[in-house]
Structures are given as C-alpha cells and as structure tokens.
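go over this chain:
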Amino acid sequence: MTIVPAVLADEVRQQGYAIWPAYASPTECATLQQSAMNLNGGEHAHHYPKSTRVWDLYQFDPIFTDMVAKPGLADLLDELLGRYYLLSDYSLNVVKPGQPVDDWHIDYPYNEMSDLVSGGVLGLQCVLAVDQFTETNGATRLVPGSHNPPRRPPKTGLDSAETLIVEPGTLLIMAAATWHRSGYNRSDRPRSAVLMSFVERWVKPLSDPLPADLWVHDPRLQVMLGAQRPAETINGVPI
C-alpha cells in the first residue's frame, strides 16, 4: 500500500484522524514490544490510576528515534503543522487489565486553553500500536469530525464513537481537538502504545528538553526538540 502524506493530511482535516497501516515493520514491532516490556517494568515507569507512562522515549532506545524519522512522516507533519514543528511529548502508554477508563478528552494544547481557538490544527497526537488493538484490550476510541470546531466533549452520550481495531505497527494520526479516550481493557494482558505528540512551532512543548549532550548527536531530534530552527523571515521578509 502506497502512503501519500497529502492524502492522510486531508483525512485528518476532514474527519479528525487518519490511519497509516504498517507504519512500523514486523521486525520494528518486535523491537518496540521488547523495549516497551522492559520500560514498563523499569525505574522510568510512572504508574498512574488509569495507565502507566514512560516519558521522553528518545533517550532510551534507538528504535524510538527511528519511529519519528520514518520516511513520509515529516511530509505529513509539514502539511498539517508547518515547517519546524516541535515534538511535544514522546511517551509509552500502557493500559493494564481492569484499569479505570479515561474520560473523553481533547489533547494539548486545546486541553489547556480557557477559550478554544479554531482555524488550524495546532497539535497532533500520533498513536503507534505496539500491541494489537482490539475491543477486548482497551483500544483507543474516538469521535470522527469532533475536532471541527474545537470544543470540549460531553461526559456521556457519545454514541458515534469508533474503536481503533488495528494490528501492531499501525499509526493513528489524530488532530489534538478530536474527542477520544482509551477503552476498557478486559483482557488478561497489558495493551501498549507509543504516543508521539507534535505541535506547531510557536506552541510550547509539554516536555522539557533534555541536556544537550543526550540528543545533540541526532540532527532530526535537534530540529524536533527546538534546538535548531533556521530563521525564515525578519520582519516578514524571507531570508
């Protein structure tokens, strides 16, 4: 299947999300699954009532840097967020069996606005399925078209929600204003995903940058973490 970033970008604008099948290869998925298992049981895991998170994944395993440098992803992000977009959050999210279900919500930066603005995407949440997503294990649920105009979701009554039933390695690209939540994991195994959140270049990322010597070796991360951004204009004049 040929992926056309511009087509995916149009789908995100129109329905609030798009699906990129086989974004990660089976070999990459196996590496991601092993890394996720190690991190979930390690010292960097933060255990919350509704999920377990590991923050700033790019510092732990080269596979995570590879995932943000995939051919085509930069073109898609350029289409939706403009050049020099920033990596806002890069984390592992593990939903364990029986954990409480998320409330319906929107993501950063909309979730921190007192008055929600419209007219741009502003932020994207990219959900990379590390495990298979099923009805049983708490797959992500979302409401198509709920991103336009940006508004806060109601607590109940979202009968139009869809469940993301996908194979490992699938990437969900979702507008930050799209209503969504994790489902209830009634299986006997954890369900893991990698979350890659991006924002337009003028929006402050959620994560603080790491010390320079931990990521300066990778030019791709330097740009996404805001360390390198060539000036485009001076007083509106291209340079």
In short: The first strand starts at residue 17 and ends at 20. Residues 5-238 form a domain with the Jelly Rolls fold (CATH 2.60.120.620). The chain is about 20% helix and 20% strand.
